[in-house]
Specification:
The protein is built from twelve helices and no strands. It is mainly alpha-helical. The protein has a domain of 181 residues: Tetratricopeptide repeat domain (Serine Threonine Protein Phosphatase 5, Tetratricopeptide repeat, Alpha Horseshoe), CATH 1.25.40. Helix 4 runs antiparallel to helix 5, helix 8 packs antiparallel against helix 9 and helix 9 runs antiparallel to helix 10. The chain is globular and about 60 Å long.
Length: 269
């Protein structure tokens, strides 16, 4: 299954666009392979570590959305055994975000984002000094903004808060992806609500220090340059994006970003 955004409808256009652009943060980031905590399990029962590893294996095939659902099921089983596992909580937030973005079922979307926010909040509560929980909590706020105008209005500051926290903890987290998200928030948000294309450029340029393999960040910076009428700089960023050799773990995300780059090239002709 290929991931594809849905068309915006009516008054939801701005919030769809915010959610759609935040989808690209997913295009840049995948799981950080931390070592899960060790838990002693009864004989014959799979360990939490084994469940996490199986969830990761399933999520690697995320272009088939049924595998994302299976991965979430694995993590929920792990959570039932160890409710206070940070490694389970932040992954649930991430996988729920993926399901919410790509599902065609509006009820499933809403539930996935709500569950992702819940898991993200738990991850932050368990380990406030680690970036993963903050990042995926912010991502789920953005996902809800895509499907709910009211949630979008409320979520803008929440997204900014979580991404700023990521920057405080680990500025280079996932190849500068927090900078990318902040840039996209400022680019997608209506000006009357604090949107600012130049601020978007500023954030995205800061992320360049960490973005050697972050194809989507280069594409998003090209988009921001186009918004401030720096067309030559936009072309340069697209050329960089199209020249990047993708990380084998992130092939689906790289492919999506390349498609976006080609679409943007058409606008620059």
């Amino acid at each position: 299954m290929q991931f594809s955004p849905k068309e915006p409808r009516g008054g939801r256009r701005n919030w769809f666009f915010l959610g759609y652009l935040l989808l690209l943060l997913f295009a840049a980031v995948s799981c950080r392979k931390e070592e899960p905590s060790t838990v002693v399990q009864p004989p014959g029962q799979r360990s939490v570590n084994e469940m996490i590893q199986e969830a990761e294996r399933l999520f690697a095939g995320r272009e088939d959305l049924s595998k994302v659902r299976q991965a979430i099921f694995e993590l929920k089983q792990a959570r039932a055994i160890e409710p206070s596992s940070y490694d389970v909580a932040w992954r649930l937030a991430k996988f729920d975000y993926c399901l919410g973005v790509h599902s065609q079922d509006t009820s499933e979307q809403d539930k996935a984002f709500r569950d992702g926010i819940e898991a993200g909040r738990l991850a932050v509560k368990l380990q406030d000094n680690k970036p993963d929980g903050h990042f995926w909590l912010g991502a789920n706020y953005g996902g809800r903004a895509e499907i709910s105008v009211l949630a979008g209005i409320v979520s803008i500051e929440d997204i900014k808060t979580e991404m700023q926290r990521v920057l405080q903890i680990d500025e280079g987290y996932q190849s500068g992806s927090a900078y990318m998200v902040l840039g996209q928030v400022y680019l997608a948000t209506p000006r009357l609500m604090g949107g600012n294309a130049q601020e978007a450029v500023d954030y995205l340029e800061k992320g360049l220090r960490f973005a050697a393999d972050n194809t989507p960040l280069h594409v998003r910076l090209a988009e921001a340059y186009l918004a401030v009428n720096r067309k030559d700089d936009a072309r340069k960023q697209l050329a960089v994006a199209l020249s990047i050799k993708p990380n084998p773990d992130y092939i689906p995300e790289h492919k999506h970003a390349v498609e976006q780059a080609h679409q943007l090239e058409e606008k620059l002709k």
